[in-house]
Specification:
Elements lengths: L1 E6 L7 H15 L3 E6 H4 L12 E3 L2 E3 L7 H12 L2 E5 L9 H10 L12 H4 L5 E7 L5 E2 L2 E2 L1 H9 L1 H4 L6 E8 L7 H17 L1
Length: about 200
């Protein structure tokens, strides 16, 4: 089994990096071949050029470039080869870091991750699953209820990302109040992530 981890955080000592390390080691113990795509280390180009965007001409979806850029093809091929996708990134300004959003913009293109014209994009992802792990500074429980921002963030990240194909979303887990917690409390989060990976 192959796991593809898409990771986004620029600071090496971050909790997100600790989460990445724990998840990677747990997957490897389970026998997964793990491929980590650290977008900052890769210096991934997040800018979607106009020539790579889709637009409508004579009622059809087209793009100026017939082929995807080479760096995008690499990421798309890794997705096709993998069974499990794990996305690890912090929540900044109630959304993804810009480099992660740029990855989505460029890699999850029409004709690959979704299509308005044929069902190939849906079929090519059958049997694949995805998990989101997102640290945040916000509390996840307010007055005994889930923070309403969490539902909104899920809607515009994990819920919509795979609505044009057949990837099964396992879960989207938020780890709240990260900057304000002790090392012991953060270790509890890491153990939670480890247990979750062990159940996959």
């Amino acid at each position: 089994m192959k796991a593809l981890i898409i990771f986004s955080h620029p600071r090496q000592g971050s909790f997100s990096h600790a989460l990445l390390d724990r998840v990677t080691k747990t997957l490897e113990k389970k026998g997964y071949h793990v491929n980590v795509r650290d977008l900052y280390k890769m210096n991934f180009n997040p800018i979607l050029e106009g020539s790579d965007t889709i637009h409508i001409e004579a009622g059809n979806f087209v793009r100026d470039h017939a082929q995807f850029p080479e760096d995008v093809k690499i990421e798309q091929q890794l997705m096709l080869e993998s069974d499990l996708y794990i996305y690890i990134f912090p929540i900044w300004w109630n959304g993804m870091p810009a480099i992660m959003k740029g990855y989505i913009d460029r890699v999850f293109q029409h004709g690959f991750a979704y299509s308005f014209e044929d069902k190939d994009a849906f079929d090519r992802f059958k049997g694949k699953r995805a998990l989101f792990l997102t640290p945040t500074g916000q509390p996840q429980v307010i007055d005994g209820k889930e923070n309403p921002l969490s539902r909104a963030i899920r809607t515009v990240t994990s819920d919509w990302l795979f609505n044009g194909n057949s990837v099964e979303l396992i879960d989207h887990v938020f780890y709240g109040r990260v900057p304000y917690l002790s090392r012991e409390e953060l270790e509890g989060y890491l153990q939670d992530a480890e247990r979750l990976i062990e159940t996959i």
